[in-house]
Amino acid sequence: MTRYARGTTVPVQRSIAELQALASRFGAKRFGYATDDEGSSVITFATDQRAYRLEVNPSEPEEHKFTPTGQLRGAVARSTMARDETARRWRSLALLMKALLVAVDDGLMDTQTALLPWTLLPDGTTIGQWAGPALDDAYGSGSMAAITAGGRR
After folding, report:
1. In terms of CB atoms within 10 Å, which of 23, 49, 73, 151 comes out highest?
2. Can you tell me the mean pLDDT for 47-58?
3. CA atoms of 132 and 64, how far apart (whole Å)
4. Smallest Cα–Cα separation from 30: which of 50, 54, 57, 56?
5. Smallest Cα–Cα separation from 91: which of 116, 59, 64?
6. For residue 134, is pLDDT > 90?
7. Is the pLDDT of residue 152 over 60?
8. pLDDT band for position 104 (cuts 50, 70, 90)
9. Per residue, what are the HEC states of the chain?
């Protein structure tokens, strides 16, 4: 299967602008974009009820070190491929947001449900970051204690 938006020419900044417009359709009053020292990027936005954070991890040149036939790629080719893959990931995030808006618009779910995994908790983690380990513990132990205890290990 071909990866969504493979070969995109849409610059990352245009995808971010599109995400900002989509967030406003979700009722966002505030929107932000930031990157860290490792190159990971986040968008954050807040409605009157909740705040959300979605992350995009950059593609690293080392991910593209070899061709499908095992040939070593040069540094420039790896860097170009990493840049293009990062842009593709931003297009994928825009597609996800569009699909969630369609689901909300069609009455399949409400905004809070659609954005639940990315809802920020008071400690700065998201529901998805919190719930994943809590669910692992609950399924592993066969007990709801991990979830009812706050999902912290």
Report:
1. 23
2. 94
3. 29
4. 50
5. 59
6. no
7. no
8. very high
9. CCCCCCCCCCCHHHHHHHHHHHHHHCCCCEEEEEECCCCCEEEEEECCCCEEEEEECCCCHHHHCECCCCCECCHHHHHHHHHHHHHHHHHHHHHHHHHHHHHHHCCCCCHHHHCHHHEECCCCCEHHHHHHHHHHHHHHHCCCHHHHCCCCC
